[in-house]
């Protein structure tokens, strides 16, 4: 078990290094001069040259990367060219908004989808299975932004139960802030439940065909115990992988939903940085979101032995 965890952690280090190289390279491939954009078209050439020297852009690319990496490891991702704020605290502030919505939505979707997929696989090709898989396919097929707009129109404009625009941090007013995140959470729950239900059903069907399940049934073990003790733990790992992928995807890119619901999250920050040509913020967001993917996949890998002890000896 310990050796397995150490191997996974060791594999994360070169992955993060490659991620940093990719982010740095992509930012340098973007057309345009960031210094020219910062100072404007009418800037004096001497001012442009001085700004490049101050930002280290006159150094070789390798030197620029090493300096940037050293600052990034120290928690310094630069300063926003739009508002002059430090990038990392700005990203962290926006990330809190996205994290509350995404973590809550994925947790609720998992609590619904895993049992639903288990039941659908157990009742395979029967009306219960067809109803569950039909509902999952429908939820999976609906675009999240369109579903969000429908919920806004129905619960916001028609029923007037929930606010349509704006955001209040729950740290300031929990009850009021909760009203602003209900619809984004419900939207993500409905969409992601479809994905996780289909994955849970497929993996459960594979496990139900294995010999040890047949053997347990032949010994007279109650069906509920077969599903709970023998099927669910072994069928959950593929679903756990999908949960990790969904978490990484949503935490790094729910810009569309944040735009629909006017939420000041991480995705919205990236969109604003792109339009403002705020390269330090955009570069910091890309590095931060890439690290989220890597860390979440590491956490998922470390959780595998909890559900399947055989993983620890691989």
Descriptive key words:
77% helix; 13 helices; single chain; 314 residues; mainly alpha; ABC transporter permease
Could you please describe the fold and organization of this structure?
It is found in: Cell membrane. With 314 residues, this protein is an all-alpha fold. The protein is built from 13 helices and no strands. Helix 5 runs antiparallel to helix 10 (223-252). The chain is globular, with a radius of gyration of 24 Å.
Can you write the helix and strand succession as a string?
HHHHHHHHHHHHH
Q: Any low-confidence stretches, pLDDT <50, length ≥5?
A: none
Q: Number of helix segments?
A: 13
Determine the N-to-C terminus distance: 9 Å
**Helical proportion, percent range:** over 70%
* Apparent shape: globular
Average pLDDT for all residues: 83
What structural class do the secondary elements suggest?
A: mainly alpha
Fraction in beta strands: under 5%
Q: What's the β-strand tally?
A: 0
Radius of gyration: 24 Å
Largest sheet: none
Keywords: Cell membrane, Membrane, Transmembrane, Transmembrane helix, Transport
InterPro entries: BPD_transp_1_N (IPR045621), MetI-like (IPR000515), MetI-like_sf (IPR035906)
Main location: membrane
Family: Belongs to the binding-protein-dependent transport system permease family.
Write the layout of secondary structure elements.
Blueprint: H1 2-29, H2 34-39, H3 45-55, H4 61-73, H5 87-122, H6 127-141, H7 144-158, H8 174-208, H9 211-218, H10 223-252, H11 255-260, H12 266-276, H13 279-307
Helix pairs in contact: 1-13, 5-6, 5-8, 5-10, 6-8, 7-8, 8-10, 9-10, 10-13, 12-13
Transmembrane segments: 12-30, 95-118, 130-158, 178-196, 239-261, 281-300
Main location: membrane
Membrane topology: Multi-pass membrane protein
